Structures are given as C-alpha cells and as structure tokens.
C-alpha cells in the first residue's frame, strides 16, 4: 500500500467511527450544515498550542471531535483523558478545540463530525508538528598525533529534517582558520597536520528555531619546532640573555648546553627560566669565558630538536630566522679573539 492509500485508509476509518458516534451523541449542540470538506493543514511548533476549528449553526443535532480512533469530545462532554485538550467556547458558531503544549504524538488527522437532519458531515484537519533541530550525539574531544586519520560525527533530529554543517576555528586564534569546511554528519581528515588543530563546530538548523551548536576540540600532537632563537650583544660585566622558543604539543622541555656541558639553573652565574613555549638563559656579570656558542635543546615525547645561539659582545644580534646579524667590526674582532685563543693552546 502506498503513502496515499495509507492516509485515505486513515480518513475512511475516522469517518466510519464518526458516523457511528454521532448516533450516540445527545442532540442540542449546533453545527453548520453542508457537505464535508477538508481544511488546510495546520502547522505548529512543538511546545506551542494548536486550535482546531469547526464551524457550526443551529441545524445540527449531534457533533463530536475525534483523533484517529480516539474520541476527544462529544457535544460538551469530554471523553479524552488528556488535560491538554480543551473545548473552546469562543462563539456559538464554532465547535473548536485547543491542544496545549503540542508534541510530536499529537500529529495526525482530526475530524469534526456533524449530524444535520440525519445527514452526516465532517470537517477534516491534519495537524503537522514541527520540531526544532537538536544535536543528539556528537564525537568527544580528540587528541591524536600528527599524521593520524580523524573522523568526527554529529547526529541531529528535527522536523523538517535539519541540515548539518561543520565550521573550523584554528587554535592559533589568527582568524585564518575560521571557515565552513563541510556539510553532513561526518568530517573525515586523512593525515592530519598541526595546522588542523582547533575547534570544530557542528551547527544544525531547520529554520524552526535558532541553530543548535556543539563543539569538538581536536588537539594534534607534534614534535618540537624551534621557531625563534636569539641573543643580544652583551659587554663584559653586564647581564646577557639568550632566548629560545619552540612550538610543540605537548609543550617542549628545554635544556641548555655550552659545547658538551649541560647548564643548570643557579650554577656558574646563570639562570634558566622556562615559561610555556619559551626558555630564557640569563648570564649575570658576563665574563670573557661566557662568550661563544650555546645550544638550546627542545624535546617532548614525540621528538627532539636544537638550535645554536652565540653569545656575542656589544652591538651584535643573532637570530636563527635571519642568520647572523653581526657588524663587520664585531665579526673581525670575534674572529681575531677565536684565532688567538686557538694559537695560545699551542
């Protein structure tokens, strides 16, 4: 049986029940005479109230409201046990009912059955209930290593059928990753990179109410990458500082070396401070022996990397991003000092 046949069977069943009921309903309740007709569908949102109207006049002897095979009212007598269904006394020319706080189970066909001079008539109403879109299931937050495959899921319900789309917000907070990436219940990512780390918003809507939004946080773990390492030129007797910055998830641990010798905080007039993705090596009262090459080592559970930083004399800056920024005179002086140091050993 097709869908059309199914609804026709529902209406026929309602009419048969209505006809049988009319001979049981006491006379005296007016209703409009005339042929049977089908009113437009009534559409309401879940939680709202629906008014089903039936026009009447003084030629009617019996009248009743039915929902499927359930009798709601016969005349002024209520048969329904549902307190949400009430008879409205708005006018003598109406025999209307009101359904308060409509839910999905109220949807379907309703019939106002009328008997006029032994001639049955009916007003048919089909109630359609709209349900706001709502997310009912979504993936939990995800933490994966770079290069892994990731699948996100978001399931929603609603009537009409809601649409679903995903929006990505980068964890960098630069706004460049704030964009819609796909439509549908699933997001598939192959070989995920650290640039794909961030918030994935599932947004569902069917224009019945404001969109429902829920978020999955995706964290991509990757080994350290030193993004900045620099030194300021420092005179003997002054304070010198070396900086090292490394991006990594989990955050990197830092170590400092001069040659093969590891440096420790508080020893040999140095202080080591690690804050987030930065590490700072501070020299107090720099001596000639402090000048030279230092190594910043950044490591986490996924890998290790390092960068060399030179502590120079005054007027020099060294940045691994821009190579050595060293005045010619300072470079010649440094070369001479290093050469003399080597000759003195012989």
TrEMBL record:
<dbReference type="InterPro" id="IPR050876">
    <property type="entry name" value="IgLON_domain"/>
</dbReference>
<feature type="domain" description="Ig-like">
    <location>
        <begin position="30"/>
        <end position="126"/>
    </location>
</feature>
<feature type="domain" description="Ig-like">
    <location>
        <begin position="132"/>
        <end position="219"/>
    </location>
</feature>
<dbReference type="InterPro" id="IPR003599">
    <property type="entry name" value="Ig_sub"/>
</dbReference>
<dbReference type="Pfam" id="PF07679">
    <property type="entry name" value="I-set"/>
</dbReference>
<keyword id="KW-0677">Repeat</keyword>
<dbReference type="Pfam" id="PF13927">
    <property type="entry name" value="Ig_3"/>
</dbReference>
<dbReference type="GO" id="GO:0098552">
    <property type="term" value="C:side of membrane"/>
</dbReference>
<comment type="similarity">
    <text>Belongs to the immunoglobulin superfamily. IgLON family.</text>
</comment>
<dbReference type="InterPro" id="IPR013783">
    <property type="entry name" value="Ig-like_fold"/>
</dbReference>
<keyword id="KW-0325">Glycoprotein</keyword>
<protein>
    <submittedName>
        <fullName>Opioid binding protein/cell adhesion molecule-like</fullName>
    </submittedName>
</protein>
<dbReference type="InterPro" id="IPR003598">
    <property type="entry name" value="Ig_sub2"/>
</dbReference>
<keyword id="KW-0472">Membrane</keyword>
<dbReference type="GO" id="GO:0007155">
    <property type="term" value="P:cell adhesion"/>
</dbReference>
<keyword id="KW-1015">Disulfide bond</keyword>
<dbReference type="InterPro" id="IPR007110">
    <property type="entry name" value="Ig-like_dom"/>
</dbReference>
<feature type="domain" description="Ig-like">
    <location>
        <begin position="223"/>
        <end position="310"/>
    </location>
</feature>
<keyword id="KW-0449">Lipoprotein</keyword>
<keyword id="KW-1003">Cell membrane</keyword>
<dbReference type="InterPro" id="IPR036179">
    <property type="entry name" value="Ig-like_dom_sf"/>
</dbReference>
<dbReference type="GO" id="GO:0005886">
    <property type="term" value="C:plasma membrane"/>
</dbReference>
<dbReference type="InterPro" id="IPR013098">
    <property type="entry name" value="Ig_I-set"/>
</dbReference>
<feature type="signal peptide">
    <location>
        <begin position="1"/>
        <end position="27"/>
    </location>
</feature>
<keyword id="KW-0732">Signal</keyword>
<keyword id="KW-0393">Immunoglobulin domain</keyword>
């Amino acid at each position: 049986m097709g869908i059309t046949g199914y609804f026709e069977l529902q209406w026929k069943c309602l009419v048969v029940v209505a006809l049988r009921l009319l001979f049981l309903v006491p006379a005296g309740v007016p209703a409009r005479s005339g042929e049977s007709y089908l009113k437009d569908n009534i559409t309401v949102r879940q939680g709202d109230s629906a008014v089903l109207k039936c026009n009447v006049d003084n030629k009617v002897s019996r009248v009743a409201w039915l929902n499927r095979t359930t009798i709601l009212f016969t005349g002024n007598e209520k048969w329904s046990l549902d307190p949400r269904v009430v008879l409205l006394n708005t006018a003598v020319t109406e025999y209307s009912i009101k359904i308060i706080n409509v839910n999905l189970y109220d949807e379907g066909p309703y019939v106002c059955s009328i008997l006029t001079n032994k001639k049955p008539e009916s007003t048919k109403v089909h109630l359609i209930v709209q349900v706001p879109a709502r997310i009912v299931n979504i993936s939990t937050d995800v933490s994966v290593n770079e290069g892994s495959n990731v699948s996100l899921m978001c399931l929603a319900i609603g009537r009409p059928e809601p649409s679903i789309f995903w929006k990505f917000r980068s964890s960098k907070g630069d706004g460049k990753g704030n964009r819609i990436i796909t439509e549908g219940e699933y997001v598939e990512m192959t070989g995920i990179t650290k640039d794909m780390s961030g918030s994935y918003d599932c947004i569902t809507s069917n224009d019945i109410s404001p969109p429902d939004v829920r978020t999955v946080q995706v964290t991509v773990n990757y080994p350290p990458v030193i993004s900045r390492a620099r030194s300021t030129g420092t005179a003997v007797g002054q304070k010198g500082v070396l900086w090292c910055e490394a991006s990594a998830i989990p955050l990197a641990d830092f170590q400092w070396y001069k040659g093969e010798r590891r440096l420790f905080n508080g020893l040999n007039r140095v202080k080591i401070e690690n804050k987030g993705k930065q590490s700072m090596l501070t020299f107090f009262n720099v001596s000639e022996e402090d000048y030279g090459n230092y190594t910043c080592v950044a490591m986490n559970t996924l890998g290790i990397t390092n960068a060399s930083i030179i502590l120079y004399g005054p007027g020099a800056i060294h940045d691994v991003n821009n190579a050595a920024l060293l005045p010619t005179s300072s470079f010649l002086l440094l070369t001479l000092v290093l050469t003399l140091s080597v000759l003195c050993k012989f």
